[in-house]
Write a structure and sequence with these properties.
Blueprint: H1 3-15, H2 18-22, E1 45-49, E2 56-60, E3 65-67, E4 74-87, E5 90-98, E6 108-113, E7 123-128, H3 131-135, E8 141-148
Antiparallel strand pairs: 1-2, 1-8, 2-3, 3-4, 4-5, 5-6, 6-7, 7-8
Length: 150
């Protein structure tokens, strides 16, 4: 094979979408990309935070999200679902607040469930200042254990 053909194949492989690479015969399908059929597209509900920095409620309705930890409360704001994925036994929903006021430090809220669908406990919330901070798994985050109230 000519060097120019090899370079072209390498460029095509590197530029191929992740989904196409995952379906390639020599690549195993990643388990974290699949979401169990029993999990809702959006996880809605009322959650109560625990601990000093997390006391307060996280409320997610079909149109708004509010998060009220004591040191950085966010009033009800519209949101977009930035991501939903399965990783091991945990399901993760990533909500990005749209139009949240400047007083709201955390613009990205990650809700994670690490138990069976009917469980009220084993919920975690992670809040990040931006999607960039979330993708970098920044240390500048608020990590809270939650209990589902409804």
């Amino acid at each position: 094979m000519k060097p120019s053909s090899r370079l072209l194949l390498l460029a095509l492989l590197l530029c191929a979408p992740a989904a196409a690479r995952a379906r390639a015969p020599d690549k195993p399908v990643r388990a974290e990309s699949a979401v169990p059929p029993g999990e809702p597209r959006l996880q809605l509900g009322l959650f109560d935070g625990t601990g000093r920095a997390c006391g307060g409620q996280l409320k997610i309705t079909p149109k708004q999200l509010s998060w009220s930890p004591p040191f950085s409360p966010c009033p009800p704001s519209t949101f977009t679902l930035a991501e939903r994925r399965q990783k091991g036994e945990a399901t993760r929903w990533v909500y990005r607040l749209v139009g949240a006021p400047k007083s709201c430090t955390y613009k990205v809220v990650v809700l994670e469930k690490v138990a069976r669908p009917e469980a009220r406990i084993a919920w975690n919330a992670y809040s990040f200042t931006s999607m960039k901070a979330y993708r970098a798994d920044s240390n500048d985050q608020l990590s809270c254990y939650l209990v589902k109230l409804d």
